[in-house]
Amino acid sequence: xxxxxxxxxxxxxxxxxxxxxxxxxxxxxxxxxxxxxxxxxxxxxxxxxxxxxxxxxxxxxxxxxxxxxxxxxxxxxxxxxxxxxxxxxxxxxxxxxxxxxxxxxxxxxxxxxxxxxxxxxxxxxxxxxxxxxxxxxxxxxxxxxxxxxxxxxxxxxxxxxxxxxxxxxxxxxxxxxxxxxxxxxxxxxxxxxxxxxxxxxxxxxxxxxxxxxxxxxxxxxxxxxxxxxxxxxxxxxxxxxxxxxxxxxxxxxxxxxxxxxxxxxxxxxxxxxxxxxxxxxxxxxxxxxxxxxxxxxxxxxxxxxxxxxxxxxxxxxxxxxxxxxxxxxxxxxxxx
Length: 336
Prior knowledge:
mainly alpha
């Protein structure tokens, strides 16, 4: 296994961790208008992710940094071609982050309503855009022989990519409902359980449709069979989450769904490998882990740095989840 393959795997791991952690984070934000009947209940919902949301986004930043350093041509082509979508994503995340910090600074219903809307749209839009982006990366976009994106914004809004976006939104919403069932207490936990039961068939149905649409998209990809097997396992994990939820074992239900999200993400990267961005103009123009990569020296140096810093980040994040593991209830001290 060469350095190029190692860093492709590491980037896949970073995105898997991001979608697992930020998935329920986005899901909670999407569910905010339905889970909170009044201001106090919305504060309960927001406080479930209050200590974690910014740490979860570190995975996205790290994945982007790894792409920039390990595969600069992939980063350049992707960010120039997906520029408008990425700006929308960035603006949504900025509004969402500001909303968490500003919402409770003024005790005015109108003020808080504005920031609640920012949290909702700042969660829904990134979930949708991530699904659209990954679907396009796998399906292929117009990239020419000079690694330049020659399409427009509306090339990205094809039916397959939009189906990927809807699938991500529904699965993240289900993930958020499972997280709330674990973190909230009393009647609000019961409400989250009800929401999870209602969202589950839509999430599974969307994933089945997306998986079915992905098989012809993979074409003669080298790892097509492995990707299909991983998607089947992801569907099995989603099915298992409903079984555990029905038995009221929400820790297992949450874990099972998290495994499903991880398998779904890995399946996308397995189906892509050894390519990193598929060209819809000519397969020969597709960017690969070799044509888009930095030098071996850069990859080796990055490996040493990552080996020192990543364990520290993992330990800190694990500690934060342990420290704030308690359920949020009527008597909890609320920060946000």
